[in-house]
Amino acid sequence: MIKLILVRHAATCANEKGELSGISECDLSETGKNQVEKLTDYLKYQTVDKIYTSSSTRTKKTIDLFAGYKGIDISIKKNLNELDFGDFDGWKFKEIEEKFPVEYLKLIKEGNNYKFPNGESLIESYNRVSQELDSIIKDTLNLDTNISELDNISSELERVNSKKSKTIVICSHAGTIRNIVAYLISKDYKNHWNYKIDNASVSVVEIENGFSVLTMLNNTEFLK
Asked: pLDDT by residue (tens digit) across 51-64?
């Protein structure tokens, strides 16, 4: 079994201003810094095998304290980045509506197919994240060994079995986590917006023999 612990980065100054925040860097707010400590305290008793983040500073700063506590190096995956809002990165939706009304109407009309100028569409981000997740799961299972060629088959089967029970932390973004959950639960980007993912929240998906179960979604109780 693979247990995925999905963590959204803590609150940033951009989040608190209501600005779109994709590939641009933004600092954790004071609220976010407090969330990091509570998140670390909540997760510290988890047995974790691997920690992944996007390439954004805000995700690394969110999980760095926990990674240090566990003594685990962080693996950075650019394909776990947030949706690329392109030219509208750092803008508020209200500002886009007021200053670029034609483009805003196009965004509303095209929905998931809409590609942000010099950015990407939600569907493109879904495909990017899904491919990266497949790669992470494959690396985690690591079942390339040809058991029939081994002298001690029983011990190797036990070793492979143990590899099937792993816990992975992925610290990324709201859009990325929604993509992961939508991909694992329904294999369809159309359910993307059905999942609420707050700052510093924890969601959990357990995967057994290719079947995924969402056991926790958007838990923020520990932040109170």
From this structure: 999 999 999 999 99
